Amino acid sequence: xxxxxxxxxxxxxxxxxRENLAINQMILDAMNAATPxxxxxxxxxxxxxxxxxxxxxxxxYSDQAINRTIPGPDGDIPxxxxxxxxxxxVYLHIHGGGWxxxxxxxxxxxxxxxxxxxxxxxxxxxxxxxxxxPYPAAPDDCEAAAVWLVKQAKAEFGxxxxxxxxxxxxxxxxxxxxxxxxxxxxxxxxxxANLVFGVYxxxxxxxxxxxxxAPLIINTPVMRWFIDHFGVxxxxxxxxxxxxxxxxSGLPPALFTIGxxxxxxxxxxxxxxxWIAAGNQxxxxxxxxxxxxxxxxxxxxxxxxxxxxxxxxxxxxxx
Length: 319
Fold this sequence. Notes:
The protein has nine helices and eight strands. It is an alpha/beta fold and about 325 residues long.
């Protein structure tokens, strides 16, 4: 079931609440006081983020998580698993980070929350990162994890009801995984896709290309830095790189989540319409004043978005 389109008022400054204005200012102040991400070497940026120096803070690790490995195209792939008692489905999660940063253990509270709210097992993929492992390493690893789940979910988790999703670059990789599973493996069994502030056009949509230097987690220079390190410059219109250019029929219902103060705003707006135009079901959740990564912050709208994502996954799991 599609939702009514957002109204112009949703994108006006008056729609922003004080809590998000304060969070956005905190992000800007913190990032302006530090070395810009795109001026750092990839490993230096990873170390900086692991130290808690960014507005996202230090990662919080869950006691419920289990680290495992599964076979991959170039060696074993680490996965991080949250497994409730008698799960009713499995959520294949793909983390964000511009294909350069991020880890499967970087969002434990969110994934633990999804597992507890939906009674689904959560499998988060620690795919290989660029530039050490440029395209197609990350999508290859995510595809391998999906293939493994299709074959092993029933034996491993007692259910073969599968969903998929991710944030930012994870949303991008989730979309590519769905396309690869459809086209290469003739599998269309994922019941839902939870696509949270994803990037779907690596040529850059207007909002990303025209955002400028204001560092609300990401900005135009950071996005270009990520794409350069991903190793796809000059061929970004390939549908296996930018899924917005793909033929999108036969994909599962999707929830697109985006904030109005996100440079990737157009990616979700455009992909939502392309998803529907291809004959698929989709919902669009637009959060006024919210920046990239807002679901990781302790705000009312962040909590609302997390709950809506969990509800969406749970509702479609039973269909």
